[in-house]
Amino acid sequence: MPDIDRTGDIKVTAAQGIVTAEMPLAGTASEQWLQLFRQLASKRFHGNVPSADAAEREGRTWVIVGLIADHSARDAESMLDTVSALISEANGMEQQAQSDAAQTEAAIRGWWARER
Question: Check: CATH 2.60.40 for 3-115?
Fold first, then answer.
């Protein structure tokens, strides 16, 4: 499961009143994980800014966070804490989906074995 790569470098840029932070993730993010994260972020952050997204590029997964430039340090830290929590929540949801799929697969294989 992906998590913030605390050994990597964060990319921070500012333009037109928006500060964007791009955080690298360690681990592999599946397409399902990316979709889960995007769904959670869109529910949490309505509108354009603040915002959070995840993308695959440069051979790894990045979480991209956008903040209005005049946010206080406390607001920015709170936003990043929220994004970290969304990463954990997406991980938990993906694990649950994998567990559910494994249980269903086992049931199907059990049924198949009985039918033989």
Answer: no
Mean pLDDT by 10-residue block, N- to C-terminus, for the chain (116 residues)? 93 95 94 96 87 92 94 90 96 87 85 88
Q: What are phi and psi of 53, to 5 degrees?
A: -150, 170
Rounded to whole angstroms, the Cα distance separating 116 from 112 reads 6
Selection from 24, 76, 23, 12 nearest residue 49 by Cα: 76
Q: Which residues contact 58 (CB under 8 A, 6 or more apart)?
A: none
Q: Give all strands (DSSP E) within 31-108, no chain letters.
A: 51-57, 60-68
Domain layout of the chain by residue ranges? 3-115
Contact 41, 86 (CB under 8 A): yes
Q: Taking a C-beta distance cutoff of 8 angstroms, is the pair 36, 90 a contact? A: yes
| pLDDT score at 63 | 97
φ, ψ (nearest 5 deg) of residue 37? -60, -45
